[in-house]
Automatic annotation (TrEMBL):
<dbReference type="GO" id="GO:0050567">
    <property type="term" value="F:glutaminyl-tRNA synthase (glutamine-hydrolyzing) activity"/>
</dbReference>
<keyword id="KW-0648">Protein biosynthesis</keyword>
<comment type="function">
    <text>Allows the formation of correctly charged Asn-tRNA(Asn) or Gln-tRNA(Gln) through the transamidation of misacylated Asp-tRNA(Asn) or Glu-tRNA(Gln) in organisms which lack either or both of asparaginyl-tRNA or glutaminyl-tRNA synthetases. The reaction takes place in the presence of glutamine and ATP through an activated phospho-Asp-tRNA(Asn) or phospho-Glu-tRNA(Gln).</text>
</comment>
<keyword id="KW-0808">Transferase</keyword>
<keyword id="KW-0067">ATP-binding</keyword>
<dbReference type="GO" id="GO:0005524">
    <property type="term" value="F:ATP binding"/>
</dbReference>
<dbReference type="GO" id="GO:0070681">
    <property type="term" value="P:glutaminyl-tRNAGln biosynthesis via transamidation"/>
</dbReference>
<dbReference type="InterPro" id="IPR036113">
    <property type="entry name" value="Asp/Glu-ADT_sf_sub_c"/>
</dbReference>
<dbReference type="GO" id="GO:0006450">
    <property type="term" value="P:regulation of translational fidelity"/>
</dbReference>
<dbReference type="Pfam" id="PF02686">
    <property type="entry name" value="GatC"/>
</dbReference>
<comment type="similarity">
    <text>Belongs to the GatC family.</text>
</comment>
<dbReference type="GO" id="GO:0050566">
    <property type="term" value="F:asparaginyl-tRNA synthase (glutamine-hydrolyzing) activity"/>
</dbReference>
<keyword id="KW-0436">Ligase</keyword>
<comment type="subunit">
    <text>Heterotrimer of A, B and C subunits.</text>
</comment>
<dbReference type="GO" id="GO:0006412">
    <property type="term" value="P:translation"/>
</dbReference>
<dbReference type="InterPro" id="IPR003837">
    <property type="entry name" value="GatC"/>
</dbReference>
<protein>
    <recommendedName>
        <fullName>Aspartyl/glutamyl-tRNA(Asn/Gln) amidotransferase subunit C</fullName>
        <ecNumber>6.3.5.-</ecNumber>
    </recommendedName>
</protein>
Amino acid sequence: MSIDIETAARVAKLARIKVENEDLPALAQSFNDILGFIEQLNEVDVEGVEPMVSVTPMRLKRRSDGVTDGNMQDKILSNAPDAREGFFAVPKVVE
């Protein structure tokens, strides 16, 4: 597939990127270079190759996924204009 100047202009418009008319041939060539690289990647045989996250085998640090209240109830409620019994107090809106 080859990208011409009109297609490059349309892609720029869809991406909401302002490209001057004299820059369109260079943009079209850049698109063609990218597509050529993708075609090269498609030629590589990856049968049996496991997907990987990184080129180095390292494991990310993990923490326990436990739900807590943060032990900061007093600190959080100190910013509230009105707090009662450990909760935010709000005006009644339904009668």
